[in-house]
């Protein structure tokens, strides 16, 4: 469910909580007069992710437990698809995770503008892996097999096992090659593990691969739970070899991570929330160990990232992945920042990224923030761009546009908008702008502005109902001269709700 619909559902409640949230909502919408003074329509303010901040990465939906794949100059992040739960009276409940059976995928080439690729239907009766009930905390890897890159998506079936899906691209289509779990309670070496979940996978330089998993704490074992494991994967990436080996991670709780940096293996994990002796590790923090061998022995080194509660005023569990992109190291993690902004900080999480500094093999502690990371390249507006690509937004939702799993913007009301960061128009300005539109409910417009939501208007795309409003049509308009690098805003206008769906756009020279 989108951020917009969550707010609407909460505000439909006739109680004190709803009145408080209504008061908040009033202050998230403001009347803005544009620089030309020709527009006083209500423009919605963003919730959770505020320009120019980069965190959280998305604000139109939730997503947790980030798993990162870097492939062909693009970063793909696979996320646990947090679903807001309600009681019979419509009150928001704590996240039980029991309803989660999909994995959300987003991607970016610049770490600021993100494309929503929708959800992979992993588990449940309509899922790819029908034997599984849930799909939590994914891990993703690829390996060249028979001369072709093959992709592997590992997931936790709640805390009772780990499954795997395969595909020929990072976006699928995905299949279940086993029809059962890859790791379960019968797997050699898992005795003593409390939770069989939270996989992390490393494909080493020699082609051998390893899976790291496990978690949980038995009473009285907070300092040394002994519930983390590593196991070699078969050459096919969908089988295991030998016996799982314990990783002696102090104060282990969950969230295995694995990286190889300068021929040293870095195992990272989230510490537990149990009682501590003086000098014990911080609660719910990302810690790390190192080894010269992917299966150990391991030596504890330090803390990478304290619990999100230290930075955002709301805590909860902690989950991460370290990754290298274009020569710099980053950490992806989650926090309840969007949920807090919505007034429902009950375990619903959102993805974030911050830079990581590594000096002489030591990972320096990261301090999380809303600012995020610098954009690594400017955005090209002269190709076809999926409309569900943006840095910031207000009001919109996304959905499948057709049976081929193409995603589009939907649920577009008057005053909704999206914006992209650092769009490079170059020195040869565009002459036209075109967009693919469908399901037109009435006359509408897309205002095209630069630099800010009330910045210079360089064009307006007029949208009129067609004979078959469900079919996708391309509409063009001329645009005023624009050169150089600007933030780009698309502001949606019209009467009523759900004005139209928006699939892609392009500037034309």
UniProtKB/TrEMBL annotation:
The record marks 198 as: Important for catalytic activity, responsible for pKa modulation of the active site Glu and correct orientation of both the proton donor and substrate. Keywords: Carbohydrate metabolism, Glycosidase, Hydrolase, Polysaccharide degradation, Signal, Xylan degradation. Residues 383-508 form the CBM6 domain. It is an enzyme of class 3 (hydrolase). SMART domains: CBD_IV. It comes from the Bacteria. The keyword Signal applies. CDD domains: CBM6_xylanase-like, GH43_XynD-like. GO terms for molecular function: carbohydrate binding; endo-1,4-beta-xylanase activity. PROSITE patterns: CBM6. Its EC number is 3.2.1.8. GO terms for biological process: xylan catabolic process. Pfam families: CBM_6, Glyco_hydro_43. The keyword DNA damage does not apply. PANTHER family: ENDO-1,4-BETA-XYLANASE, PUTATIVE (AFU_ORTHOLOGUE AFUA_2G04480)-RELATED. Belongs to the glycosyl hydrolase 43 family. This is Endo-1,4-beta-xylanase D. It comes from Dictyoglomus thermophilum (strain ATCC 35947 / DSM 3960 / H-6-12).
């Amino acid at each position: 469910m989108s951020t917009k619909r969550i707010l609407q559902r909460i505000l439909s409640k006739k109680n004190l909580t709803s009145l408080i949230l209504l008061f908040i909502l009033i202050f998230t919408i403001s009347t803005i007069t544009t620089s030309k003074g020709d527009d006083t329509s209500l423009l919605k303010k963003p919730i959770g992710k505020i320009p120019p901040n980069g965190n959280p990465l998305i604000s139109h939906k939730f997503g947790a437990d980030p798993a990162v794949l870097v492939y062909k100059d693009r970063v793909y992040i696979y996320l646990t698809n947090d679903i807001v739960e309600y009681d019979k009276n419509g009150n928001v409940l704590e996240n039980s995770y029991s309803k989660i059976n999909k994995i959300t995928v987003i991607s970016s080439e610049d770490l600021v503008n993100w494309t929503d690729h929708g959800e992979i239907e992993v588990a449940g009766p309509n899922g790819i892996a029908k034997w599984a009930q849930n799909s939590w905390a994914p891990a993703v890897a690829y390996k060249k097999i028979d001369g072709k890159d093959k992709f592997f998506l590992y997931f936790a079936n709640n805390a009772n096992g780990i499954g795997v899906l395969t595909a020929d691209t990072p976006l699928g289509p995905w299949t279940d090659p086993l029809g059962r779990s890859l790791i379960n309670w019968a797997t050699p070496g898992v005795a003593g593990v409390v939770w069989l979940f939270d996989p992390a996978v490393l494909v080493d330089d020699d082609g051998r691969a390893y899976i790291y998993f496990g978690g949980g704490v038995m009473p009285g074992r907070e300092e040394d739970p002994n519930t983390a494991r590593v196991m070699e994967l078969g050459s096919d990436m969908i089988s295991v070899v030998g016996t799982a080996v314990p990783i002696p991670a102090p104060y282990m709780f969950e969230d295995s991570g694995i990286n190889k940096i300068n021929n040293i293996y870095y195992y990272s994990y989230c510490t537990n929330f149990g009682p501590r002796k003086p000098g014990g590790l911080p609660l719910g923090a990302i810690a790390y160990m190192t080894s010269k061998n992917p299966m150990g022995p391991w030596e504890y080194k330090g803390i990478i990232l304290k619990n999100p509660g230290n930075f955002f005023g709301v805590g909860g569990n902690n989950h991460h992945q370290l990754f290298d992109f274009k020569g710099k190291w980053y950490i992806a993690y989650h926090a309840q920042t969007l949920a807090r902004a919505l007034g429902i900080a009950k375990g619903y999480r959102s993805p974030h990224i911050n830079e990581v500094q590594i000096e002489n093999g030591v990972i320096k502690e990261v301090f999380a923030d809303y600012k995020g990371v610098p954009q690594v390249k400017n955005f090209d507006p002269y190709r076809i761009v999926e409309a569900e690509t943006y840095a910031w937004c207000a009001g919109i939702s996304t959905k499948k546009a057709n049976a081929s799993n193409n995603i589009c913007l939907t649920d577009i009301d008057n005053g909704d908008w999206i914006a992209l960061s650092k769009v490079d128009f170059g020195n040869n300005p565009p002459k036209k702008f075109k967009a693919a539109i469908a399901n037109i409910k009435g006359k509408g417009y897309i205002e095209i502005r630069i630099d800010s939501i009330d910045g210079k208007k360089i064009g307006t795309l007029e949208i009129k109902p067609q004979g078959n409003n469900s079919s996708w049509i391309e509409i063009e308009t001329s645009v005023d001269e624009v050169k150089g690098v600007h933030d780009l805003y698309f502001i949606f206008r019209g009467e009523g709700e759900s004005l139209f769906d928006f699939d892609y756009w392009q500037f034309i020279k």
